[in-house]
């Protein structure tokens, strides 16, 4: 299957922008781009709660 | 590819940190990588060189590969201009990008491992009076007493290596 993807970017006007945070592989772009590939991993499983004596994290 | 002209009245950015980019103008592409161990302790004692990324699989597994379908042909025509009023952004962080202008391919990667460490439930565990339970419901050994009186001020809870 052949896909023809045609994009026409015209005039754009925006009043004002207020953003608290842009974080963890995000992007805030005022302009044009061909491609954005954003990937983020966040791991906080139940096992990540350690209840016990406060020992340092393992070194290797 | 001809990019659109951007008119921006004002930009206020308070913080850019942790492999983040704030760019005014065009570029040929951006690639950022970020990894972090986010560690919370009930008692905030941290040794400077603790832990390693290699100990956790999240830092080793590959990011998924995403690509534009090869059978698709993309044509872009950029006409006109972009006009934006005042912009205020409090923070840009962790492999993120804020840009005013045209950009090439953008590739952003971040990995964060979040760990929380608590002391066992006991009479000295929590001065606020709230009680925490573990999901597994296992019986946790109660602490027999407060931190040992002989422990040094720089290492008050007896962390040793």
What does this structure look like?
The complex is a heterodimer of chains A (60) and B (161). Chain A is mostly beta strands and 60 residues long. Chain A is built from no helices and six strands. The radius of gyration of chain A is 22 Å and the shape is elongated. Chain B is mainly β and 161 residues long. Helices cover 0% and strands 40% of the residues of chain B. Chain B starts with a strand and ends in a 43-residue tail after the last strand. At the A-B interface, strand 1, strand 2, strand 3, strand 4 and strand 5 of A face strand 4, strand 5, strand 6, strand 7 and strand 8 of B. Strand 2 (12-14) of chain A pairs parallel with strand 6 (81-93) of chain B, so a sheet runs across the interface.
Gist of the model:
The complex is a heterodimer of chains A (60) and B (161). Chain A is mainly beta and 60 residues long.
List keywords for this structure.
heterodimer, A: 60 residues, mainly beta, 6 strands, B: 161 residues, three-stranded parallel β-sheet, two-stranded parallel sheet, 8 strands
SSE blueprint:
The complex is a heterodimer of chains A (about 60) and B (about 160).
Chain A: E1 3-9, E2 12-14, E3 17-22, E4 27-30, E5 36-43, E6 49-51
Chain B: E1 5-13, E2 16-17, E3 21-24, E4 30-41, E5 72-78, E6 81-93, E7 97-100, E8 106-118
Parallel strand pairs in B: 1-6, 2-6, 3-7, 4-8
């Amino acid at each position: 299957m052949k896909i023809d993807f045609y994009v026409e970017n015209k005039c754009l006007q925006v009043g004002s922008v207020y953003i608290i945070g842009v974080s963890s592989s995000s992007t805030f772009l005022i302009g044009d781009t061909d491609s954005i590939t954003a990937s983020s991993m966040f791991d906080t499983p139940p096992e990540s709660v350690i209840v016990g004596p406060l020992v340092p994290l393992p070194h290797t | 590819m001809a990019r659109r002209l951007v008119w921006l009245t004002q930009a206020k950015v308070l913080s850019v940190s942790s492999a983040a980019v704030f760019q005014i103008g065009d570029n040929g592409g951006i690639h950022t990588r970020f990894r972090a161990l986010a560690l919370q302790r009930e008692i905030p004692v941290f040794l400077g060189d603790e832990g390693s990324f290699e100990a956790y699989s999240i830092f080793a597994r590959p990011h998924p590969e995403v690509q534009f379908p090869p059978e698709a042909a993309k044509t872009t025509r950029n006409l006109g201009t972009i006009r934006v009023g005042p912009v205020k952004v409090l923070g840009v962080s962790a492999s993120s990008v804020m840009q005013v202008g045209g950009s090439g391919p953008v590739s952003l990667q971040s990995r964060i491992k979040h760990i929380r460490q608590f002391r066992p439930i006991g009479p000295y565990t929590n001065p606020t009076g709230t009680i925490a339970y573990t999901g597994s419901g296992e019986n946790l050994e109660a602490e027999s007493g407060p931190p040992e009186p002989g422990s040094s001020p720089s290492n008050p809870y007896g962390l040793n290596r």
